[in-house]
Fold this protein.
Amino acid sequence: MHGPESLAASSLLSPETITQLVQQSKTVYTSHADVKNDYQKWLKGRKLQNRYPLGKGITLKAPFDIPFKKSPSPQALSSGFRQPLRPAVDQSVGTFVGYLTLGPRLRVNRSGRSDMWLANLVDEEGSAQRLVLKIAQESSQSFPQRYLERNADLSNAKIGHPIDLVAPEFFIYERLQHLQGWLLPYSYGIHKIKMLNDEDVYVFITEFIEGRNLHPAPVPPALTNYFEKGIK
């Protein structure tokens, strides 16, 4: 299978940059010309995505800087509640630079707007680290074509930005850093990659933990209520 095996660039986004992107994603259209321009851009990206889909074995050939974290927080280690998770990567290596090769797809978002993959981060010497990627790209989203109509109401018209698919989970991990490596996998941030077709793709990277897949296991009502209320 041929695919987007080369990238123009990749970068690790700061929390401040992610916040700015989320704010910008809330901008609504002000003219039908803007809608048509975005539609043509989306259509081009969708055609290229259909022609060169992501798949197992495809290598994203841009250097990814992964800021590995060396150990669970002192709070986690001293709690005595349970032993820290056994890391699936060597947390002592510090920043790890390498290329990502996709493994099996773990899950597809119900809306089809994002995919979750198992991947290997391989450096120039062939050393590999297993990670989980949540990949969000604009061309995977559906375009609300009703906005293309000449008399369409644009007062609330906007297209979802791919950053919206990964930012909420990233900020939850940020709030729960003291639980990473203990009750949660480590978070390695959101990386923005520029595909050679000029599409921006956002990749949220976390540690991979061996174990039984709990999806789509039923969620207890108490936990569902907790998620609905959010993390205060």
Observations:
- Residues 1-5 have pLDDT under 50 and may be disordered.
- The first helix runs from residue 15 to 24.
- The first strand starts at residue 7 and ends at 12.
